[in-house]
Design a protein that fits this description.
By secondary structure, this protein is of the alpha/beta class. It has 2 domains: about 5-220, DHBP synthase, CATH 3.90.870.10; about 245-350, Rossmann fold. The protein contains 10 helices and 16 strands. Strands 1-8-2-3-7-4-6-5-9-10-11 form an 11-stranded mixed sheet, sandwiched between helices. Strands 14-13-15-12-16 form a 5-stranded parallel sheet, with helices on both faces. Helix 1 packs across helix 5 (about 130-135). Bound molecules: threonylcarbamoyladenylate (TXA) and magnesium ion. Magnesium ion (MG) binds near residues 144, 145 and 153.
Length: about 350
């Protein structure tokens, strides 16, 4: 298959390009498109055969359900049985934006999209290209992140090309994603609502809006969660992983920096190419083959924006092992740390 790549203007998406992409969606084929979080791999959410093509292209496990993207609040009524008043409130406050709500599904949503669950995950993205594509297609668009399953999510069209060139019909190139981590997934079928995946909408803001929100215990887990009963199947699959092995170090700043260097040195003795994922404050303290910074320690938005791209860069430089610092859990830091923990396969070292 030849993958067509179209550069699109993010402020004023060109009508002809959006039409051509929408035609592809309507035909039951796949289009990767930019959103404010990461690039998505889109198909007509109501067409089971089209959605099955997503799983094949990504090599995604079949039990991992897919988020449905809509262009208005009204669109949700075609997908969900009921919209609780708390969900309505969150839509008013956070949509369009990086918040996915899990609701009871209508029967007509294909099992291919829900992974056979009786719930559906819905979000309205704020990216103009994404919104234009959904509107022009006239159908809700099912879209997981546009990477091969298990790889870091793509924040540029180039990342999508690295993973999916020749496997999908089209990529809309809208430059780099603003937020850089995926949406927050919030389960509205339980009370209080529970965050299944931390993401672009910070926990603190949801707490302020709702008064009470729970974090699924696996989010801060130091170990892989028991697989038997996870509410979000995505939780149990290997994720966000660069090809290199990643070791995550947690602790107070001084102890952490010392530990990171110690591990890097001992890995170096095993004649490995060693990378360090640092922050602006610490980057000049280290010596290793490749050293990269997520940004200022207090700037969780920049860590989120840089994370996935940096993990891919370590791979390009053929690093064998990445030793990563932790960042504070505030704001988008919770999402960043959740991705780092998963990427490490829970190889987490306590510095103190
Ligand atoms: O920002 C994002 O959310 C991006 C962009 C493209 O919108 N999409 C994305 O999709 O990250 P994906 O498929 O990579 O992650 C979807 C997550 C998975 O962890 C999945 O298990 C969970 O949402 N999920 C989907 N439907 C669900 C449901 N009905 N109940 C619980 N979790 C669900
Ligand atoms: Mg994903």
């Amino acid at each position: 298959m030849h993958t067509i790549i179209l550069k699109v203007n993010c402020e004023k998406p060109e009508t002809a390009k959006i039409r051509s992409a929408a035609q592809t969606i309507k035909k039951g084929r796949l289009v990767a498109f930019p959103t404010e979080t990461v690039y998505g791999l889109g198909a007509d959410a109501m067409n089971a055969e089209a959605v099955r093509r997503i799983y094949a292209a990504k090599k995604r496990p079949l039990d991992n359900p897919i988020i449905i993207h809509v262009a208005s609040k009204q669109d949700v009524l075609q997908l969900a049985k009921e919209v609780p008043s708390k969900a309505e409130k969150l839509m008013d406050l956070f949509w369009p934006g990086p918040l996915t709500l899990v609701l009871k599904a209508l029967e007509k949503v294909p099992d291919a999209t829900t992974g056979g669950l009786d719930t559906v995950a819905v979000r309205m993205p704020s990216h103009k290209v994404a919104l234009a594509l959904i509107r022009e297609s006239g159908v809700p668009i099912a879209a997981p992140s546009a990477n091969l399953s298990g790889r870091p999510s793509p924040t540029t069209a180039e990342h999508v090309k690295q993973d999916l060139d020749g496997r999908i019909e089209m990529i809309l190139d809208g430059g780099s994603a603003d937020i850089g981590v995926e949406s927050t997934v919030l389960d509205m079928t339980v009370d209080p609502p529970q965050i299944l995946r931390p993401g672009g909408t910070p926990y603190e803001e949801l707490l302020e809006a709702l008064g009470k929100v729970e974090l699924h215990p696996s989010i801060l887990a130091r170990k892989r969660t028991r697989l038997a009963k996870v509410p979000s199947p995505g939780m149990k699959h290997r994720h966000y992983a660069p090809k290199a092995k990643l070791i995550l170090v947690e602790g107070t700043l001084e102890a952490m920096v010392k530990k990171v260097q110690q591990i890097a040195d001992s890995r170096k003795k095993a004649e490995r190419k060693v990378g360090i994922l640092a922050t602006d404050e610490t980057v000049s303290d280290y010596s290793a083959d490749v050293i990269k910074s997520l940004g200022k320690r207090t700037d969780s938005a920049s860590a989120a924006k840089n994370l996935f791209g940096l993990l891919r860069e370590f791979d390009e430089e053929k690093v064998d092992v990445i030793v990563a610092e932790s960042v504070p859990l505030e704001g988008l830091g919770l999402a960043v740390m959740n991705r780092l923990r998963k990427a490490s396969g829970y190889k987490i070292v306590k510095a103190d």
